[in-house]
Specification:
509 residues; alpha+beta; seven-stranded mixed β-sheet; 10 helices; signal; MetalloPept_cat_dom_sf; zinc; metal-binding
Length: 509
Amino acid sequence: MKLTCLIVAALVAIPFHANAKEAIEIQLTAKTTKFPADAPVDLIVTFTNVSDSPVKLLGYQTPVVEGIEADILSVSLGREPVEYIGRLYKRMAPTDRDYLTLKPGESVSGIASLWDNYDLSVSGTYLVQYKTEVLSRDSDRAVAFSNVLFLDIEGREPPLDPDDVEEDGPITKIVNGSNEKWKSCSDSEKNDLVTARQHALNYADDSYDYLVAGTSTSRYTTWFGANDSSRYGTVREHFRKIRNAMDNETFKFFCNCNKNNAYAFVRPRQEYKIHLCPPYWSAPMTGTDSKAGTLVHEVSHFRVVADTDDIQYGPTAAAQLASSNPGDAIRNADSHEYFAEATPYSPYNPCAPTVTSHTGAPITASWDGANCHVMNVPAGLTPFVYNNAYYVNALPGTSCPAPSGWDTANCYILPYPSWSTSYFVWSGNLYLTPGPGNACPAPSTFDGANCYVMPLPWGSAPFKYANNLYITPPPNCPIGGFDGAHCLVGTAPASRTAFIWGSSFYYGH
């Protein structure tokens, strides 16, 4: 009797009729409140139109059609939110066929399985509430909520999804040793996925380079909203991780999804497993809602990458989200996809970022099939990389700037006068203290305070020897410019890693 009273008390819901969210009554019920570790945790969700007008519900935001297909429940253990571990789909923008229409007084129900979709690994009392988007006759969108259930659940691991079981099969090698594994994929589908992954890597590379450069054109603001340094940094880090995953991780592609209203899905905890659905195969390779873009979308969902969600689908809704709620936009998977696709798409040049030479001028690298070749290092020089910049050793110099002259060992300037108390360097120039009557030995000249001798070349040092004034010859840099110790040739792009291979400077793609 006590158990019955507890459940009934949890079902109380008071309907209102002022707008869309108050036109629907949502009841969340369970046959029991205690679930041992081997028992499914299945809840019944009932939607009733308590208004006098038709009300629409977004079908995949309910469990009525095919169970839970999105993060539609608010689940917490104590005060801590419980992670959604179910499927996240890449979908088209919703159309009329995606909505369920309830006539006045009509009810529909569906089964919501917590065990399949939420992390129930810890035993305790869970609080569960349902939420969904409602659309009224007047297109008044709102989020409606159900009552709250309190459930005592014994901890358990998630059940195995048969669709996630891998098959041993051909493994195709791709960029930098990455691999693909397949389940139920034809040869043509495998080829499409290999090509799509390469384009997805290009997209991620291009996006990351844009963000590392600190660019904030309409391409960024369209999909992520007003430029804010914190949000911008978050998006940049997302694309760094997306790029690294595309380039290095082993992906498992499952070609056995049979949903006709979605491109693909992943489970955010099951890293690099991507399930492809029928609409994926008819999508273009690149461009808006493309095969390559879909891979960017799905990879962004993984918890170890960007941990994105599906807040809005389609370009129009994603652009509106960027304008109205940039904080949500940087968590939205479609926003990342459309930013990456950057329609119109142009083939990515992996060596587009230029090296900044020691003079500030750009140096363009060339693609050698694996990395970006910057330049060959002349024979006899020792190349090295420091702080992502290219250097070579400086060579001993023999060239002496006027008015000094080479004496086979150093640069001779003038006989050192006995009345001069010192020589010194100030603001990059060499001086002597003047003699009586402001006397200055040629070729120095009195400048009103001291005897100006000459500009002192960078890397050169003055010294007195056998009553003569000398400077050391400036080091010789066959390439680059002397920085006081070595010859700086240039600095690699911030998003790339400089390295040396053989006798050439490179950066990675």
